[in-house]
Automatic annotation (TrEMBL):
CDD domains: DUF820-like (cd06260). Residues 27-150 form the Putative restriction endonuclease domain. InterPro entries: Nuclease_put_TT1808, Restrct_endonuc-II-like, Uma2. The lineage of its organism: Bacteria, Bacillati, Actinomycetota, Actinomycetes, Kitasatosporales. GO terms for molecular function: endonuclease activity. It comes from the Bacteria. It comes from Streptacidiphilus cavernicola. Keywords: Endonuclease, Hydrolase, Nuclease. This is Uma2 family endonuclease. The keyword Hydrolase applies. The keyword Oxidoreductase does not apply.
Amino acid sequence: MTAATKQEIYRHLRAFAAHFTPPAPFSPRVEISDGQIIMMMSPAGRHDLAALRIERQLQPQLPPGIVATTSGDIEEAALGQLRRPDVLVLPEAAMDTDDAISPRALLAAVEIVSPSNPENDYESKLRHYPQLGIPHYLIVDPRDGTCVHYWAITTRSGTAAYDARVPYVFGDKITIREWVIDTGELPRYDQDPQ
């Protein structure tokens, strides 16, 4: 499939997604990747709580003009990607748009693993985020209380990938650039649902 064909497919999916309302219990937000629309379950309370706590921890550590936020789509039409990270760290000026944010503006992206679709964070986004130029990617997994920080993008055979990886467990303090996230404050999903 040619790059032009991939972009045409993406444009059609993007137009469809703009007018599509997923049925409950799916989130009204969708992502597009690999020529598919990805419907996501509405986040659980602890999912959003983890994202909120990370945002609150990061914000006071960031220099003027840099923000941590739990809202904003990122888009790279040439790569057929529309994503919505759970926490974005980026220059505030990059949000001054009527469209999706350029992923190349991000300094870091944090994903809180969903119980219903963990492979989206561990496989698809891990493959695509370095191609989108996101220098730091943190996966937080409340299912088992683990995290993985990826960084150091390298390109081999025309494909970008993260070259460095450090695993953590809840309770550890994670350093990303000069910022620290205390994972001891993050909730875990219920281990014994009733």
